[in-house]
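Good morning,

Attaching, inline, the backbone tokens for the sequence recovery test we're adding to the shared suite. The designed sequence is right after.
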């Protein structure tokens, strides 16, 4: 049976520690949280989920504050970065097309 508690509740203080290899650890009660570096897909997933929780203006402001740490590919997938241009056709293809055109005219 659960009892309902009214009033303030106590939460343990968070402290910092380090792993043997030097990574920072946050200790909260009996749990230890280690920072895990994010890859491109993880960053994209995190930002996409964060966008659902924030207003559009807040999300754009967040991205502007952290733009240096976010890769161009992630920004592009979120629709916030520059749109990549299609590569220009090489000159060789144009010359080949012109030669084929002349060949068909002659035939």
């Amino acid at each position: 049976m659960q009892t309902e508690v009214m009033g303030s509740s106590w939460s343990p203080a968070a402290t910092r520690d380090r792993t043997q290899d030097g990574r920072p650890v946050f200790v909260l009660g009996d749990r230890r949280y280690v920072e895990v570096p994010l890859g491109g897909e993880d960053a994209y997933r995190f930002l996409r989920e964060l966008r659902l929780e924030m207003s559009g203006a807040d999300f754009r402001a967040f991205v502007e504050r952290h733009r240096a740490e976010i890769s161009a590919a992630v920004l592009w997938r979120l629709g916030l970065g520059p749109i990549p241009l299609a590569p220009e056709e090489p000159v060789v293809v144009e010359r080949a097309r012109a030669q084929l055109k002349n060949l068909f005219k002659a035939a």
